[in-house]
Amino acid sequence: MMTTYCKSALLIENPLQIEELLTHFAREYLRAKRVIKLDYRQYTIDAGENDIRAVVIDEEKALIAFCCRYAKDVEIYESKIKQFATEHQLKIISRSNKNNE
CA 13 → CA 18, 32, 46, 48, 67, distances in Å? Predict the structure, then answer.
């Protein structure tokens, strides 16, 4: 069960590129070959480890949050999200760290 959301979310310009963007992130930072859409808003992005998921909070605005299985991992993934956003010139939105969405 995913319990802790990262404080950073990604805001992308084109909602049609959500899966493509997540695939790039997964390949570059999580050693995954692809992402898998679990339902209408969740993606597994870490090659089956199930330690982090991407959650589309707002499909129209293409706001993507990240949820970790373990609170101890949030800082690690937070750093990866920020580095990816910087490298790809993506906008980061700060969110309050919620246990449930």
Answer: 9, 24, 23, 28, 21
Question: DSSP labels for 44-76?
Answer: E-STT--SEEEEEEETTTTEEEEEESSGGGHHH
User: pTM above 0.85?
Assistant: yes
Chain-centroid distance of CA 49 in Å reads 14
Tens digit of each residue's pLDDT (9 = 90 or more) over 47-72: 989 999 999 998 888 899 999 999 99
């805001």: which residue's tokens? 11
Q: At what angle do helices 74-87 and 18-29 cross, to 10 degrees?
A: 110
Q: Which residue has the tokens 């299985």?
A: 69
Q: Which of 43, 47, 7 has its CA nearest to residue 30?
A: 47
What is residue 12's three-state secondary structure? coil
Containing H/E element for 86?
A: helix 74-87
